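Narrative summary of target 7.
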Amino acid sequence: MKQGAIAKLALQGARVLTPDGWLDDGTVLIEDGHFVAVGQLTKPSGYVAIDVSGLQLLPGLVDIHGDAFERMICPRPATILPLDMALVENDRALLTAGITTFFYSITDSFEPGLRSREMARSLINHITIPETLAQLGLKVDSRIHIRHEQANTGGHEELCQWLESWQVTLLSLNDHLPPSLAATTAQRYTKKLHQRVKMTDAEIQALLETAFSQRELGAQQADELVAHCHRLGIPVASHDDETEADVAKSRERGVAIAEFPAEIALAAQSRAYGAAVLMGAPNLVRGGSHVGYMSVAAAAEAGVLDCLCSDYHYPSLFHAPFLLANQGLMPFEQAWKRVSEYPAKAAKIGDRKGKIAPDHDADFLLLRPGHPLPNAIQSVYINGQQVAGFG
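Modeled conformation, tokenized:
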């Protein structure tokens, strides 16, 4: 049964996944939305007791790179649905997958339509304005990760202002332009663009020609954005580092997160300068990368996997720790850290998110043991309040 707003909760009898491992028959005390004590405790007076015997209590998933919401906004090329409807649908999907903290990974591109600056602005206004959030009734702790395409040079000051105002709290630097304008090298980009917008090949060619002409200015602006982020304490991520030169540039920029490096050696070099390596959970679920990069399984075996994200499929993030454990790649306790504690730390919110520990936000899941798919989730709590129940 879904609980109302209760200031002091004592959840008793669960098997609790703490930062130090499993705690059997645990008691978790929550006050005003925060964990205050975890252990084999006696319930203090003033706390409302909830018997959760037979269940597992784990930190909620912290997803710092997810863009499956795009398909809810634009289910077919150039077919844009109302943002209110799409965001409510997305919020429900996140809860069903056990994601309690979510970074909307919004592409800030030179493209029209779904990945345009106009769409980014609309999403940011919907997600970061408290009154709008209250009207929509979104439950998940929602944040903004801007995936900035370096060839998008328009509105540079607006992007800087989003950082200054902390509307954007994670920035990744992307360059998805093909190596050249030749039809053979641009074909893959053109094919993917046709999936998002209705444009002729001639219109796409003109778009790419303009983008190529902006690359030098875009690189200069990217360095300015990095400087802003470092001054403000906002983490910067690289994206798809494919060469040692890419990694060297990321090191020069002081990148905190290396998103989807192409090879194990590059991932190791990224970790050597202090970046956390982030990979997509669907890669593990599918058995490999859909673009031919290294697999999550290989990265885990090589010891270069720090964090997982949903990328383009939310349920995969829940399932991934079970797969890592079942395939003997790492203990389950360590695998779950890669979807909770470690992503929170990489995004610089680890002092509040990702752990069942005192002084952290009481974001957690109650699971039925023995089920590795999201239908194991019985309840989802955010800030100590039950926001979803499934049985």
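The chain has two domains: 8-58+358-389, 60-346.
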